[in-house]
Structures are given as structure tokens and as C-alpha cells.
Amino acid sequence: MATPWAPQPLLDPWVLSPAHLERLRKFKIQIRIANEKYLRTHKEVEWLISGFFREIFLKRPDNILQFAADYFTDPRLPNKIHMQLIKDKRVA
């Protein structure tokens, strides 16, 4: 005769085991390292973000979303960033 099925206690699916936590920690470290390497090789990202924040603090727009849309779709932006990268190389 077959043994009757007995329900198993449910484990919380959102709780990670110590081994999974360690794997997650190592994964996060690797992602941060990869992101840092990417940012160091792409100075234009720094200029895009710092320029955006500089303009926000100078102009203090009421509608941040519209300001961001206008800032990042400005057809002059690529040239501004390019010129800043050239200036950066001259200083270095």
C-alpha cells in the first residue's frame, strides 16, 4: 500500500539560504566592478550626468521631467559633450 501524501512545510520563497546570499554578494561586487570599469572608459557618461545636474541646479525648473526630456533631446548635446571631452584631454 502506498504511503499517503503528506504536505511538506512551506519554505518562504523570498528568504535566501546562506549559500545563495554569498553568491548574490559576489555577483553584486562583480556588477559594481564592471560598472566602474565601464564608467572609467566612457567619460561622456560623467559629462552627461554632471551637465544635467548642473543645469537643474542653475535653472531649478518646476517640471523636472519636461526639463530632462528637453535636455537629453537637445540636438546640440552631442557636440557639447564632444567639446568637453576635448577640453578634458587637453588638461590631462
From TrEMBL:
InterPro entries found in the cross-reference section: cAMP_dep_PK_reg_su_I/II_a/b, RIIAD1
Pfam families (UniProt xref): RIIa
Domain RIIa: 51-73
Source species, domain of life: Eukaryota
Protein name, as recorded: Regulatory subunit of type II PKA R-subunit domain containing 1
